[in-house]
Design brief:
Helix content is 25%, strand content 24%. By secondary structure, the chain is α/β, with parallel strands linked by helices.
Length: 239
């Protein structure tokens, strides 16, 4: 596993601590697949959990590739042994819906929250979610919903919620969720020179109602330079 402790400490310092007793929800996204967004989101959640007064949640919102819980489970040296599976929704709400809805053997509708679980790590200081895709019926699909009480409910139980979404070149989930987040962190790999795609992502996030709070440069070539661009005053940290 990649250790980004130093970079994540810089990002934590740049973002500051939550200013409200209610937790904050931060989304991590990149323009291109392979820029390391999942790794950055996971590492930030781990470092944040080490100092948080309340649990930190890592929500795996890559609905077609649920990999975060597996990744944590394979690195017990850094995340500790996994705890027991629990429901991932405090109030029965979720940020997605199944189409068509699930039904039990008697034909009754199964709530979407029954397909959403969480597992604790780091002595219950870090929780990671997973959509139980193995329980989907043939032909079922999962869709993001426009309105949900889920993020508000989770804020009551978490200091920070880290939301890992797929890159924009693979899915529009980031744009669907941007306006529901307290802040957005862009992940950029300097190994790829496609600057225009990053500019487009920034503009798209802002147009979707998202608030850009910073940029993480993953796998930066110049190791003497900080990997975090600190937030600027105003709505966007990239201006």
């Amino acid at each position: 596993m990649v250790d980004l402790t130093r970079e994540m400490a810089d990002l934590m310092s740049a973002l500051g601590r939550p200013q409200s007793p209610r937790g904050r929800v931060l989304m991590f996204v990149s323009a291109l697949t392979g820029e390391g967004t999942s790794t950055v989101a996971r590492e930030f959640a781990r470092c944040e959990a080490a100092f948080a007064a309340k649990p930190v949640w890592l929500v795996d919102a890559d609905l077609q590739n649920q990999s975060q819980m597996i990744a944590l489970g394979q690195d017990a040296a850094r995340f500790g042994p996994p705890g027991t599976l629990s429901q991932a929704s405090p109030d029965g709400s979720v940020f997605f819906r199944l189409v068509p809805p699930g039904r039990d053997v008697s034909g009754e509708v199964i709530g979407d929250d029954k397909y959403f679980v969480a597992r604790p790590f780091l002595d219950r200081r870090l929780w990671v979610t997973r959509v139980r895709q193995q329980h989907f019926a043939p032909g079922q699909r999962v869709r993001i919903v426009d309105r949900t009480t889920y993020w508000g409910a989770l804020r009551q139980h978490a200091q920070t919620v880290c939301v890992d979404v797929p890159a924009l070149d693979r899915s529009t989930i980031a744009l669907q969720l941007a306006g529901q987040m307290d802040g957005v962190i862009l992940v950029v790999s300097e190994e790829d020179g496609d600057v225009q795609s990053r500019i487009n992502l920034k503009n798209d996030i802002e147009q979707a109602g998202g608030r850009l709070m910073g940029i993480v440069y993953n796998r930066a070539r110049n190791t003497k330079t900080s990997a975090v661009r600190r937030p600027a005053r105003g709505r966007s940290a990239t201006r």
